[in-house]
Amino acid sequence: MANAVILLLAAMAVSTILTNPRFEWGTVGKYFFEIRIIKGIGVSLGMTAVTMLLSLALGTVVALMRMGSSRLMATVAAAFIWVFRSIPMLVQLLFWYNLAALFPTLSLGIPWGPRFVTFDSNSLLGPLTAAVIGLTLHETAYIAELIRSGLLAVPDGQRQAAATLGLTPGQTFFRITLPQALRVIVPPLGNELISLLKATSLVSVISLADLLYSVQLIYAKNFQTVPLLIVAAIWYMIITGLITLLQQRLERRLSRHTLIPADRAGKAKGSEHSL
């Protein structure tokens, strides 16, 4: 009975979408590959890729600081995560875009001493730079916690077994700890990547020509608001679907790898005791 109700509702939804002339599917097809929209997709994908790479690098550093033995570094890392997770992404984008109002010039030098290099904030912090900075800092705070949780999920016994087998700390991290941590990190990291892709639509508020802003520029002239929003929605769904497929493939590949088997570790410990 439940299946029949679901199928009926699905059929009604599909019928409504296909038969309602106000969806204007002809207009959707006309603008689906419009050059401005394709360029906007490139901007969105470029920002997503650059931001994710920077966030992974910075997030790893922040996570290791948070887990380190230095109380000062752990406190700084925790404060960083708290600040940039607390402030909404839209607020951060607007703040960095308007940073010139707070600092008309940016300089490098000795505090209360000579300045070696001075930059004009308006020319340095354009829409693209402000967007990358805002998105990166926001994502770094979340990714740092993902990486930290993944590293903490690896049992200490694995590292002890690796030491028993004679592996160095570096070998232990890259061959034992990191592969196991990735199993925990990759699923939420894939979700974070999808969220980041969708969050790039917020840069339209600072007039950066991403996918959404390109669509807005077009329908501001021809007033075909709904069809063009459908174009943007379909493109976001296509890209999200591709990311999901890549994530699932990576998860399957990681799940096939085995690290230090329990019997091997046990034999290594047994041989050590026999000596």
From TrEMBL:
One of its GO terms (molecular function) is transmembrane transporter activity. Signal peptide: none annotated. InterPro entries: AA_ABC_transptr_permease_3TM, ArtM/GltK/GlnP/TcyL/YhdX-like, MetI-like, MetI-like_sf. It is found in: Cell membrane. Keywords: Amino-acid transport, Cell membrane, Membrane, Transmembrane, Transmembrane helix, Transport. The keyword Lipid metabolism does not apply. The keyword Membrane applies. Residues 41-247 form the ABC transmembrane type-1 domain. One of its GO terms (cellular component) is ATP-binding cassette (ABC) transporter complex. It is a multi-pass membrane protein. The chain crosses the membrane at residues 43-65, 72-97, 199-219, 225-246. One of its GO terms (biological process) is amino acid transport. Belongs to the binding-protein-dependent transport system permease family. This is ABC transporter, permease.
